[in-house]
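Recall that a protein's primary structure is simply its ordered list of amino acids. Everything else, from secondary elements to tertiary packing, is in principle encoded there. The following example makes that idea concrete.
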Amino acid sequence: MKNPAQLYLAAAATILERIQATQLDALAAAADICAHTIASGGLVHLFATGHSRMFVEEMFPRHGSFPGFHSIVELSLTNHNQVVGANGQRQAMFLEHVEGLGKVILRNFVLTPPDSFLIFSNSGVNEVVVEVALEAKRLGLPVIAVVSVEHCTASSPKHSSGQRLIDIADVVLDNCTPAGDAMVHVEGLNDPVGPGSTIGAAALTNALKCLIAEKLTALGEPPIVLTSAYFIGSQASQAQFDAAYDDYRRRVKRVYG
């Protein structure tokens, strides 16, 4: 009999297999949107609440990534270091259900075509992420959603519009995680453990990144990649990081104008 670690790894492998079997067309469509945005001088805005913030940072900046993405991350919605007390988890979980907050957040930025939005949310139903998607669409920007389609469709809409993220997005990327997220049942323990959405969403994020890099290069706009010194040496790596950060600064000036 497999132990819980083996059960989790097997479930994680199943997620990756499902993504490869079902998500390639959606990944290509999402990459087309993002590549068009970046090649046209725009920004792919990244938004998430809760633990989905991880995938915003996974997209950029880190080794093997490149400018063209702009993170919109609220600490009040994503900072889980202090579980209780000031800036605690209860407050963050309360705020992601407050209608109106999404519009207030986006009011801080100048958002115009050819920009686009990439929104991460495992459930796809909380009020703030739905409102951000609705506002992006109102501004004429395409929306890509990364969700668990199984969990999202099994969940009742919470936003007053009656819509889920998958109802609004132009492209939906399914992280192929089972509803409820936790995947492993331990003998003698009533509740499942071992969330799978981290595996699925991270895989989609990096697969999408690779496709975007390919499309930008084919368009004659090869991205400036944050490249490890392992590949090109420390001096060239530092120079490339500086060039990428300078490119990022140039791109984001407009959104704070």
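The beta strands are 44-48, 69-72, 116-120, 143-147, 171-174, 182-184, 193-195. DSSP finds twelve helices and seven strands in the chain.
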